[in-house]
TrEMBL record:
Belongs to the glycosyl hydrolase 13 family. One of its GO terms (molecular function) is hydrolase activity, hydrolyzing O-glycosyl compounds. GO terms for biological process: carbohydrate metabolic process. It comes from the Bacteria. This is Alpha-glycosidase. Keywords: Glycosidase, Hydrolase. It comes from Paenibacillus glucanolyticus. The keyword Hydrolase applies. InterPro entries: GH, GH13_cat_dom, Glyco_hydro_13_lg-like_dom, Glyco_hydro_b, Ig-like_fold, Malt_amylase-like_C, O16G_dom_2.
Length: 582
């Protein structure tokens, strides 16, 4: 075995408390190099009477490594442990003091998880595990009150530009909440709603005022109250990295320069604040001079922004925040942000916008979740035919091993957003490919999110084309696609195994675009079969039990001589299910 590939550290995603009684352990080995791994566990003060061995499960693989995992429930909330690793007739031991062939006498030199402190357990909001999110850009969703349209509002459904308006507002959202209930969603993520000169509202002027083109603060409260009455949670977009150049404190800096009392609220590199050769003399979002960056380490700035976060949680009973450009704000700020928000609403869901590996924000002291763009990228690459099943399984395995399980259960999974081309456009306009991506989204671990209009077939390239007006005319909607979305949402909401059950690939081969995978808990066992090709395929997998049925039609489906054969049309799928308990 390749000893150099063995890896474990007693912290982060490798050893963590899943709850107040359970510790999860992971170890990495070279891919296809190891037959089995056994966790040797016990209490360091009473090793002989508490010693317990656990055969670890191969939870995931990527191109280079296998990842083994187990859960341990120590008798006294303390754990000393090591690993016994087998490959053929070779056995090695891995403990904190090193790797060797001789049995390491316990517990000296073993890894330790000193104690499960409840205060240190990373707890995520339980409701987020049940959520199906719907992302709304209010300006493009529905025009419910033309009397508050901005000057120059264009006819609904026109071509989106970087600076045009179509009059969408909160009354329009209120008017269509029953449509969202009918679709099946139970959570809404609103892009920014506060006073701003732009159509996207990511350049805030007043953080405590709903933009008048959307309505007012009372109307937002009514929207949230109505959502709650219909079983819908609501999170808003917090733009705390930067503000608008029209933000009053920044206007004061423009006017008074270094003599302004707000001069240190921003990262000013040279006075006066201006743009020279396309580069501002102050830090900004990107190089956009109209979006100056906050100095979030400044006590007054921190107090102001944390006050905003607390205000909306309390004022409208907000269920959480999505954090814009979260990775460009200091960690001290986010730690204080979490304390403030969770004190105001312990069940608030905090989602950071980070486009890459986000583990440093997901240790339980900052975010609950992040927008899982790496998931979207891998899913779309596979279902667009740009990788085979084995490569896809490896990439998904790598994503699953990035975070602890409680994060994987609520990571914010999306296939497109206001910052990317639309899903149907990303799959070349092929609704068959689109459906496969959506089936995977709703049968995978994490919290799924739909971008408004995807369910009726809206298309669009990158910003601003992806921000088209919602299509409300049934004659222009893809109603068959809508019914598909509705059925997939209902299936996920009906079965806990599709939300929190274990995930594992059963079939994913080199040079083969088809995959088979499972989701299961102690009640139900699902197997999902996907033909990601343009040819008819019959997929087969060994299955001993005979009590399977189609999860969508409830038609009985039986294996033949211990082999399940599933016939699939091009880009077809089938979801089979078996009850483990009545």
């Amino acid at each position: 075995m390749l000893l150099e590939a063995l890896y474990h550290v007693p912290r982060d995603k490798w050893a963590y408390a899943y709850d107040t009684y359970t510790i999860h352990l992971r170890i990495r080995t070279k891919k296809n190099d190891i037959d089995s791994v056994v966790a040797m566990t016990g209490d360091k003060y009473d090793w002989d009477r508490t010693y317990f061995e656990i055969t670890m499960e191969k939870a995931a693989s990527d191109e280079m490594f296998d990842y083994w995992e187990c859960g341990v429930r120590p008798k006294y909330k303390r754990l000393s442990y090591g690993f016994r690793i087998h490959a053929g007739d070779e056995t090695v031991y891995m403990v904190d003091s090193g790797i060797g062939w001789d049995y390491p006498y316990p517990p000296a030199g073993y890894f330790e998880f000193p104690y499960i402190h409840e205060v240190d357990v990373f707890k995520v909001p339980e409701w987020a595990k049940e959520a199906v999110f719907y992302q709304i850009m209010t300006e493009r969703f529905a025009n419910g009150n033309p009397a508050i349209n901005p000057v120059g509002t264009e006819v609904w459904g026109g071509k989106p530009e970087v600076d045009n308006f179509f009059g969408g507002d909160l009354q329009g959202v209120l008017d269509h909440l029953d449509d969202l209930v009918e679709l099946g969603i139970n959570a809404i993520y609103f892009t920014p709603l506060f006073l701003s000169p732009s159509n996207h509202k990511y350049d805030t002027v007043d953080y405590k005022q709903v933009d008048p083109q959307f309505g007012d603060n009372e109307l937002l409260k009514k929207v949230v109250d109505t959502c709650h009455s219909k079983g819908i949670r609501v999170i808003l977009d917090a733009v705390f990295n930067h503000c608008s150049e029209e933000f009053p404190p920044f206007q004061d800096v423009l006017k008074h320069g270094k003599d302004s009392p707000y001069a240190e609220w921003f990262h000013v590199n040279q006075f006066p604040c201006e743009v020279k050769d396309g580069i501002p003399t102050y830090d900004t979002f990107g190089f956009y001079g109209n979006m100056p960056k906050f100095n979030t380490a400044h006590p007054e700035v921190k107090e102001y922004l944390l006050g905003v976060a607390e205000y909306w949680i309390k004022e409208i009973k907000l269920d959480g925040w999505r954090l814009d450009v979260a990775n460009e704000i200091d960690h001290h700020f986010w730690r204080d942000f979490r304390q403030v928000v969770k004190k105001a609403n312990p069940e608030a869901y905090i989602v950071g916008e980070v486009w890459s590996d986000s583990l440093i924000w997901l240790a339980g002291d900052q975010f609950d979740s992040v927008m899982n763009y790496p998931f979207a990228d891998k899913v779309l690459e596979f279902f667009n035919g740009n990788m085979d099943g084995l490569t896809f399984a490896n990439r998904i395995g790598s994503i699953l091993m990035r975070y602890p399980q409680q994060t994987n259960e609520v990571v914010f999974n999306l296939l497109c957003s206001h910052d990317t081309p639309r899903l149907l456009t990303r799959v070349g306009g092929d609704t068959r490919r689109m459906k496969l991506t959506v089936v995977f989204l709703f049968t995978f671990m994490g919290t799924p999110c739909i971008f408004y209009g995807d369910e009726v077939g809206l298309t669009g390239d990158g910003d601003p084309d992806c921000r088209k007006c919602m299509e409300w005319n049934p004659e222009k909607q893809n109603l068959e696609l809508y019914e598909f979305y509705r059925s997939m949402i209902a299936l996920r909401k009906k079965h806990k195994a599709l939300r929190q059950g274990r995930f594992r690939f059963l079939q994913a081969n080199l040079h083969d675009p088809c995959i088979v995978y499972e989701r299961a808990d102690d009640q139900l066992h699902f197997i999902v079969w996907m033909n990601n090709s343009d040819s008819y395929r019959t997929l087969s997998h060994p299955i001993v039990t005979t009590d399977w049925f189609d999860a969508q039609t409830e038609e009985s489906v039986k294996p033949v001589n211990g082999i399940m054969h599933v016939d699939l049309e091009p880009y077809g799928y089938r979801i089979l299910c078996r009850r483990l308990k009545p």
